[in-house]
Design a protein that fits this description.
The protein is mostly helical. The chain is built from 16 helices and no strands. Helix 1 runs antiparallel to helix 2 and helix 14 runs antiparallel to helix 15. It binds one RNA strand through helix 1, helix 3, helix 5, helix 7 and helix 9.
Length: about 280
RNA sequence: CACCGAUCUAUUUAAC
């Protein structure tokens, strides 16, 4: 079963649907019964293709066949319901899962919290997070939970609250730690707002938590420096990043564009050659 | 206390 399930998952990623069907037939030919993993993978694949009806049918089919869905199976469908904006049904489905003997896990809650955010119900999302933090639901939040809330607070203009949550994460005893997602979310937001000093401070702070700024972080910050007309700072950030990472095409495009704004043709040329030197192909 | 497979979060650069 494992072999077949792996193969099926691979084909699904490659969107080779005919192959999936063929493999399923081959399985039954050989008397191998699909298990929870197989069905769950199929349901996920169908959801990702937007075939939600098919996914539900698959869910029913697996139950008919006496294969008991797992929390993962339910989580996928809860996610699907959220994506369709059916947040109440998503919660109801979680209820059904619990009744069937599958406990909610952190992914279940993360999915629902994201659903609430996307449905413009930040208040409820945060309330649910608080309940998790207080231990009222029996599942403690993780980095993904906080990242989701932080991201959506940013989108909804709540950057200061987002920063409070980030502070909470770095505190000892919170049981949480920020990851590179956390930082890229906030650095991106601060950059958009033109709060370059704050963004750079955060970039420095990453090292204190065992994280290194990524290409994305540097590129984002450089772009906002360019917008703010802080070319010197941008260039020094660029040389700093060059020591640690390989700047990519986006990095160079950003720099060339910045030089272009001021008509600095020589600089542009230099950058262009530098880019070729490093084996990058211009796009 | 039996190796392997399934689910959740961020995405930066050009033409106003």
């Amino acid at each position: 079963v494992v072999t077949f399930t792996c193969l099926i998952n691979g084909l699904q990623k490659a969107r080779r649907w005919a192959g999936v069907k063929e493999l399923l037939n081959k399985m039954t030919e050989q008397g191998i019964k699909p298990d929870v993993f197989t069905y769950t993978g199929l349901i996920d694949g169908l959801c990702k293709e937007g075939k939600e009806m098919e996914a539900m049918k698959m869910f029913d089919l697996m139950m008919e066949k006496g294969v008991e869905p797992s929390t993962v199976t339910y989580n996928i469908l809860i996610n699907q319901l959220c994506k369709e904006g059916m947040i109440d049904d998503a919660f109801a489905f979680m209820e059904r899962m619990n009744v069937s003997g599958n406990a909610s896990d952190v992914v279940t809650y993360n999915t629902l919290i994201l659903g609430l955010c996307e449905a413009n119900k930040m208040g409820k999302a945060i309330k649910l997070l608080d309940e998790m933090l207080e231990g009222k639901v029996g599942v403690y939040p993780n980095t993904v939970t906080l990242n989701t809330i932080i991201h959506w607070l940013c989108k909804r203009g709540g950057i200061s609250r987002a920063l409070e949550f980030q502070k909470m994460m770095v505190e000892k005893g919170s049981g949480l730690r920020p990851d590179s997602f956390t930082y890229s979310i906030i650095i991106n937001e601060l950059s958009k707002l033109g709060k370059i000093d704050d963004a750079e401070k955060l970039l420095r702070e990453m090292k204190d938590h065992g994280l290194s700024p990524t290409l994305l972080d540097y590129n984002t910050l450089m772009e906002s420096m360019s917008r703010g007309g802080m070319k010197e700072r941008m260039m020094s950030l660029f040389s700093e990043m060059s020591e640690k990472l390989r700047p990519d095409v986006i990095s160079f495009n950003t720099l060339i564009d910045a030089a272009g704004r001021d008509g600095e043709f020589e600089t542009m040329k230099k950058l262009f050659l530098d880019m070729l030197d490093r084996g990058l192909s211009p796009d």
